[in-house]
Amino acid sequence: MSVEGVDLDDLSRRMQGALSVLKTEFSGLRTGRASASMLDPISVDAYGQSMPLNQVGTVNVPEPRMVAIQVWDKGMVSAVEKAIRESNLGLNPVVDGQLLRLPIPELNQERRQELIKVAHKYAEQAKVAIRHVRRDGMDTAKKAEKDGDISQDDLHVASDEVQKLTDAKIAEVDTMLAKKEQEISQV
Q1: Which end of the chain is more exposed for a tag (fewer CB within 10 A), N or C?
Q2: How far apart are CA 19 and CA 37, in angstroms?
Q3: pLDDT tens for each residue of 124-174
């Protein structure tokens, strides 16, 4: 769908991208159960660039409360360990040569509150990304009006449509956050 001067489909697609990133980040917030996907948001500084953790080692789950990472390059072990410690997932790797073991701690109330704070941070980042897309849409509409491509009435219609789309996507973020909070809070 396109309103005069603004491509709403493009804006919606870009906002949906922010939601899919949020979903990925939320999948990393596990509730006391080991999962290889919980390490997906972690990037490691390797070979002069930032790489996903699964591109510097093999991630597997040998036990329900343990994640193991077999790092391929001996020189990358400390970088992987550092990335995990700085990830705000509350995991403390145990280094054994090129193998890193991540015991998943039992979630106490304090840890649940920490995870909820991290979830809120991820949700706020998604909202900011959606607002940036909204700003781009508004700027496009204003530029079209300034150039004489659309009238002021069309500018108001376009602005309203962009705002409705933004409100809907932010409501989706809030819904996802509420679900994640409930999941984390379950004992």
Answers
A1: C
A2: 17
A3: 999 999 999 999 988 988 888 888 888 888 888 888 999 999 999 999 999
Q: Identify whether the C-beta of residue 100 lies closer than 8 Å to the C-beta of residue 80.
A: yes
Does the pLDDT at position 27 exceed 70? yes
**Residue 119, number of CB atoms within 10 A of its CB:** 22
Q: Report d(CA 71, CA 5) in Å as an integer.
A: 51
Residue 86, amino acid: E
CB 39 within 8 A of CB 30: no
CB 76 within 8 A of CB 44: yes
The residue assigned the tokens 């410690």 is: 85
Chain length of the chain: 187
What gap in Å lies between CA 97 and CA 79, rounded to an integer?
13
- How far, in Å, CA of 187 to CA of 173, rounded? 24
The residue among 107, 146, 152, 138 whose CA lies nearest residue 8 is: 138
CA distances from 116 to 15, 31, 39, 183, 185 (A): 23, 11, 17, 10, 8
Q: Which residues contact 29 (CB under 8 A, 6 or more apart)?
A: 38, 89, 115, 118, 119, 122, 180, 184
- Of 86, 49, 87, 55, the C-alpha closest to 72 is 55
What is d(CA 59, CA 30) in angstroms, rounded to the nearest whole number? 16
Q: Which residue has the tokens 């809120």?
A: 120
